[in-house]
Amino acid sequence: MRDRDPQGRPRNARPRDEYGRPLPYGAEGVPRVPDDYAPTTEQALADGLEHLEEGHPFHAHEVFEGRWKCAPQEERELWQGLAQICVGLTHLQRGNGRGAVTLLSRGAAKVQGYGSPYDEVGRRASALGQDSDAAEAVESVRVELVAVLRALG
After folding, report:
1. Can you list the alpha helix ranges (DSSP code H) found in 71-152?
2. Helix (H), strand (E) at residue 11
3. Which residues, at least 6 apart from 126, have a Cβ–Cβ distance to it below 8 Å?
4. Among 70, 83, 111, 121, which one is least packed by beta carbons within 10 Å?
């Protein structure tokens, strides 16, 4: 059963490891992005960048998801696409190539609609499905995404 807050909204109080995998209750996990996180654009870029630089795309996904939920309508697809790319990278880290390809493709399609500098991130993310070296592929997209976020921040 999923954790709920006092108002009945779903929450996930379960600790997670550095790749976002759930750990048993009571285990020590890594710090999480709060469920009610609603960052500004600048804060989402800075926090997402920090998590990606640390090699934690799952946590970057949570940051971008937080921004996606509170962003103006015209930006939502961008933040959703960035979140999906980060989840795709997470799936690669966990060894789930099939799930990675699906999410990377979806995310790439969304961010490429925002033009430069997202075109290259989208191209690299969509090419990951053909890459046989998952570790190298993750690093390639992570580095490109870090470069884009640094340029924007």
Report:
1. 73-93, 97-112, 118-127, 134-152
2. strand 10-11
3. 104, 105, 108, 109
4. 70
Classify residue 29: in a domain, yes or no. no
| pLDDT digit string, tens, across residues 88-129 | 889 888 888 788 888 888 888 898 888 888 887 777 777 765
Is 31 within 8 Å of 56 (Cβ atoms)?
no
Q: Would you say residue 31 lies in a domain? A: no
Domain-embedded: residue 43? no
Any idea which residue has 């070296």 for tokens?
Answer: 133
User: pTM for the complete prediction?
Assistant: 0.82
Residue 142 near residue 121, CB atoms below 8 Å: no
Q: Which domain holds residue 59?
A: 52-153
Number of domains in the chain: 1
pLDDT in tens, 9-52: 666 678 888 888 888 888 998 888 887 888 999 999 999 999 99
| Token representation of residue 129 | 């499905």
